[in-house]
Design brief:
Length: about 160
């Protein structure tokens, strides 16, 4: 029961990782949304399966896991956040940026077993659970609109630096 409660806490932040919005939040619409959806839709059928969604989480995890040890540390999350913020500063969405969560908040939400790191299993399990939550019509696929709505919901629930860990 405790594991499920912990998993729920980390899903919003995990979703931000999957969708490429670690740290600085952005609007998930227009060309950037289309581009990200196309990258995730590896079989190009116009919808995302759970496997495609989890694979996107794995790719993001791999990109963040700089030392390839299968675990994300606070410093790896921080580096990814800074890289993302630098990329976002160069885009039209930069004006829509929201304050980012502190590293302690991110780790608390993502590290569902409390061991101080985010494992690949935590990432994948969270992605599977988030997929089910975002699949509002329960057809076992995410449409562009379901993904966009899920992203918007995550943006609203993502903690800001003004919140206490």
């Amino acid at each position: 029961m405790k594991r499920l409660a912990c998993m729920g806490r980390g899903l919003g932040m995990l979703g931000l990782l999957v969708l490429g919005s670690t740290g600085t939040a952005r609007a998930w619409s227009g060309a950037s949304a289309e581009s990200q959806f196309q990258e995730m839709d590896t079989n190009h059928d116009g919808k995302l399966s759970s496997d495609e969604f989890v694979a996107a989480a794995d790719r993001k995890f791999d990109a963040m896991d700089k030392n390839s040890d299968g675990r994300l540390t606070a410093s790896e999350l921080q580096a990814s956040t800074q890289e993302h913020a630098a990329r976002m500063a160069k885009t039209p969405e930069a004006s829509m940026a929201q304050p980012e969560a502190s590293m302690a908040q991110k780790m608390k939400q993502l590290d569902t077993n409390g061991d101080g790191v985010v494992s690949r299993d935590e990432c994948e399990n969270g992605a599977r659970t988030k997929f089910v939550q975002m699949d509002t019509n329960k057809d076992d696929y995410l449409s562009k609109s379901e993904l966009a709505a899920g992203h918007a919901k995550m943006q609203q629930s993502a903690p800001s630096t003004n919140e206490r860990p």
